Amino acid sequence: MIAKDLRVSVRSVQRWRRTWDEGGPRALKSQGPASLPKLSEKQFAQLEAELAKGPAAHGWEDQRWTLARVKTVIGRRFHLTYTVQGVRKLLIRNGWSCQVPARRAVERNDDAVAGWVKEVWPCAEDSRRPVEPGSCSKTKPDSP
What we know:
Blueprint: H1 2-6, H2 10-23, H3 41-52, H4 67-78, H5 84-93, H6 110-126
């Protein structure tokens, strides 16, 4: 009955009862999270040094760190497995933020962009079909 009300297994209730019998209410107090951070502070400092080398040093062609790439570096360097969300939490817990750099491509040509916006974009805007009242029926056109 208790297990059903709490939506847990009967074994959990039995384990809790045994713990209560052996140590009283203090024995049932939370022991904290089930898993501690896998990387120590020393290992995280090593990870930061690896990340400072850049993605190219680890075999990626572009210079973007993604959570999946950081996960791969952790696996290769420390032989530990993290989920992508676990990597995100690890980085945030250590003061990192997930962000996209606010910079423009080196190849960007501002004059060409301005010309396109001035000449091509108005033509593309005008090429849309005019908005007219119509019928929602596909087989019967609207009545006059």
